[in-house]
Amino acid sequence: MSEAVSSVAPYSWALIGLAIIATFFWRGLGVLLSTRIDPSGPTFRWVSCVSYAMLAGLVARMTVLPAGALAMTPLTHRLAGMACGFAVFLLFHRSVLAGVTAGTALFAILSALTAS
Amino acid sequence: MLADDSFNRLGDARHPTLAVAARAAREAFSLPFIILLASFAGFGSVARASGFSFELAIVATAGIWGLPGQIALAEQYGAGAGTAAIILAVSLANARFLLMVMSFMPLMRVGLNHRGLEFASAQLLSTFSWAAARNAFPTLSDPLRPIFFMVYGLVCISSALIGTAAGYAGVTALPHSVVLGLLFLNPLFFALVFTDSRERHVIYAVLLGAVAGPVLHGFSPDWGEAAGGLLAGTAGFYLTRSPRMRDGGAP
Prior knowledge:
The complex is a heterodimer.
Chain A: H1 3-33, H2 42-64, H3 75-91, H4 96-115
Helix pairs in contact in A: 3-4
Chain B: H1 2-12, H2 16-28, H3 31-49, H4 54-64, H5 67-78, H6 83-93, H7 96-102, H8 105-112, H9 115-124, H10 127-136, H11 145-169, H12 176-195, H13 200-219, H14 224-239, H15 243-246
């Protein structure tokens, strides 16, 4: 290990420690705030709705406006893969495995055809 | 899914704990295993490029256990950002855990019956185990829910640790179309898993959120997803309230 690396090591370990605490803050706060939430009550339904809507928004954004390598692929390919995944999922008795396999296969084939 | 449920009912007769543990392991060692391996390999290679040691990359995955925050950490550290800016970015990127824990822990509290285990479970929670537990819990009795969650969650974090190590070591020599396919697995998997929910208010929230997320992201990349979730989730909640709840009576 070079001297430059070993001199930044204590800082980077402290940084990771702070990052762990910064993330656990939200998890721990969630435990504390949820102690009085009745799982069959309206508060729980509302928190569930907001959680699902937020994550669905994230998934939709990753499809429509992706970051990284997916951003280089045409939107039509991504939407075709999604549509194919949903169709096979519904046709095969709501099988997530079948839907994901079919949708991803179509997307990968379209990508390979465009690249060649 | 149907086959899993019938297997679970058969297994319940004699060894319910083993049957549920096996079901959780089987579900997690499927697409989640592949997706986590691929996406955390991405983190491993970003962590290496940013100058983190191998040990730091592994501890980051095990301890932070939230990919958006980990990517923010590695990228900002690599770019030479200040400590406060880095920690703020990590914290904001992983703030979704607050809502995820709140929309999950009440379903497992009776089965856990221990505050320390609640904090430990919150630490183990990821989007994969959250979504899988939300779908599986209606078919599981209270004492069996923690078994399902723990097994599923441990398989997930193990997959992520293997992925981090592989990515750091540079095992990414895959054809470009395969890499694209692996990246595409992630949104497609969650789109289908969320739609697989049997709860009507969840389906409404998912559909509304899928429209609101990208639209509001266009206005504000930083706050769009949170605002979209709040608006679409609240709309879904009000649209699916039963007439009795709407009148203010107890459901």
